[in-house]
## 1
Amino acid sequence: MQGSALIVGIDSQIGGALAEDLGAHGLSIWATSRRGSGSRTAFLDLAAGFDRWTPPRVNYAFLCAGVASIETCEREPATTRRVNVEAQITVAECLVKQGTHVVFLSTNMVFDGSRPLMTADEKVCPTSAYGAQKAEAERRLMLLGAGVTSLRLTKVLSSKQQLLCGWASTLRHEEPIQPFCDVVLAPVSVRQVTEALRTIARTSATGIFQLSGDVDVSYAELAYELADKLGRSRHLVQPVRGAMRYLIPPPAHTTLDTDGIRRLGLRVPSTHETIDDIAREVATACR
Ligand SMILES: NC(=O)c1ccc[n+]([C@@H]2O[C@H](COP(=O)([O-])OP(=O)(O)OC[C@H]3O[C@@H](n4cnc5c(N)ncnc54)[C@H](OP(=O)(O)O)[C@@H]3O)[C@@H](O)[C@H]2O)c1
């Protein structure tokens, strides 16, 4: 691939992985961070003003910075809305004006989770502040013109995540873990996400796309898979109910229909393929 890309939020899980992926595929990478600046990284705090920020002239921009915690959005709706909605629109407006293809990262939480496999064109119905912010940002971004894409993601897993590494370390010591049996996910891996974002850029696809596993599984099922990969007894996995501990009841269904992204030529792995891969990676990576 040729050209240049801006990663807004290079320190995020997805932004960091995307920068590596796009760099390896020949794109020249620019970035923003709220931790500092460098030759190709500009300081940008989305909660502050934009006076000192001039967007670089790039072909693609990926909006990866934001408050991704459902709890924080619920507790601080006004400040998080400034970052997750207003700032995203301001940044996107600057970029679209100069002809950059802008890609926003959204979520299955724009739906209420009452039904599985929601299609991209179904009416949004969020039940959390986080979901409502993402739905509003998406709607307003789509009004900016032709050069905007939103990719809705279900839970993104990587072998670097604390929860999974913590489970691996506990299981290795032959100690029990207590994953939730009543909270579900239809995970995608961070690698699948970067591949989907690269495909969107390469094909200049605009509009709303979705990336998701095909079925929901509980966190307990993920933990059993990890115990298997580590060669530990499944008896060490002791599922508990945890949904009532959430500030917002977790959705009964998280799956999204992926027809749109498949039509771009992307292969979307099944949930079971993804948890098999992630469990294997965690078993190798987390010592
Ligand atoms: N991960 C998932 O399962 C998932 C699922 C669906 C959608 N998404 C969306 O995908 C995007 C990236 O997710 P992620 O998991 O990679 O995120 P992440 O690892 O939680 O990182 C979020 C990033 O946003 C930055 N940030 C927060 N407030 C900021 C502000 N005021 N100004 C500038 N930067 C700010 C953080 O900076 P610091 O590093 O300095 O704290 C952090 O690097 C988010 O929009 C998220 O909502 C994620």
Note: The longest strand covers residues 101-107.
## 2
Amino acid sequence: MSVRYAFHQEHREIREAVAQLCSQFSLEYWDEHERDGVFPEEFYRAFADGGWLGASTPVEYGGSGLPISALAAILEEVAASGGALDACASVHIPLLTVPVLLRHGTPEQCHEMIPRIVAGELFVSFGVTEPTAGTDTTRISTFARRRGDEYVISGQKVWNSGALRAEKVLLVTRTEHRDEANRASGITLFLVDLDSDGIGIQPIPKISRNAVKSCELFLDEVVVPADRVVGEVGKGFSHLLTGLNGERLLLSAECLGLGRWCVEQSARYACERSVFGRPIGANQSVQHPITEGYLKLLAASHVLEAGLEAFEAGADSDQIGALTNSAKFLASEACYFAADQAFQTFGGYSFAREYHVGRHWAQCRLQRVAPVANQLVLNYLAERVLDLPRSY
Ligand SMILES: Cc1cc2nc3c(=O)[nH]c(=O)nc-3n(C[C@H](O)[C@H](O)[C@H](O)COP(=O)(O)OP(=O)(O)OC[C@H]3O[C@@H](n4cnc5c(N)ncnc54)[C@H](O)[C@@H]3O)c2cc1C
């Protein structure tokens, strides 16, 4: 039985269509792209041509206007296909800019960019993280200085995923120096062309998810027209938060997909592999951890569903924040648990690329760290749900 049907009944037709598209891309395709660090152009093209990039984008911008739960289902199926995060990142990164534009962009920016993003013609990377600020985004130091009708930007970003493939970056800058009394103010978002003079891009050698390279971005006096500001000058931090809950939900769905692949493969292998004259899956020490992984994913899927429902119903922001953060924590921990059990189940063969377990294991591990580390999720829940003192 596919683990998929134990979890979900909704968006079944969409799930089947996406799974069908993904089945055209073999495990070997993904292994090669991961190994060689090559962007999966064929998959990205097929996904965009199928209309999936625009699934939850409003119809007036070339999308299908489906609810976010449909996009979550789509990304879960992509993750579960064996493409793992190499596949997911290639299609979700450009979509991260869309909610920010829809909410805060000018009509001109929306009409210029969004139809191109959903058509797979415009890849935008997301430039938040800096080497010296880390998780504490208000400490970024990339600075945009106003000069007449333009801004001049200098600074450095790190882990900018997709920058080598992207035409633009949604860049988070400071336009005022940090004020301790109001740490989040003075941050401004820009859409910057990555071929501008003064930009250097350096890929970071990574241990995994290499099909979408992550890069250092160096900006030296980069001139950007003032009409490339997204939203209000100085309000960029709150604009960024706009997209955060949706991103957490989609990420959680990807975790479920990754975890499903691990559970399904573990169960299959445990039945097929015979040692001591019987399938290894006949041992409780093999079958129980696989089953426990399944249960953790099942529990996480219900919290994710509650988060999607609250989000779609426009529930109050505290309730949505609590559910999306809970889903992110539970789904990422569950998928890593399932991946680690897959590693144990496959024994020595988990180290052979041929079995694709190591690839999934490393990518599931990543989900506990990025785009937000699980300690920060616990910080949020401790403060906002349990009324504990703010710790960060
Ligand atoms: C493969 C990959 C792709 C990425 N892609 C992008 C991208 O496209 N765009 C982008 O902007 N960023 C991207 N990132 C960056 C990612 O969002 C950050 O790595 C992540 O937010 C953590 O930041 P950091 O690595 O600087 O950790 P740090 O902030 O240095 O933290 C290190 C550790 O300390 C913990 N810690 C720090 N402070 C606290 C505290 N107060 N309480 C409890 N624990 C704490 C953290 O949780 C973490 O475990 C990517 C990262 C990776 C690995």
Note: The radius of gyration is 21 Å.
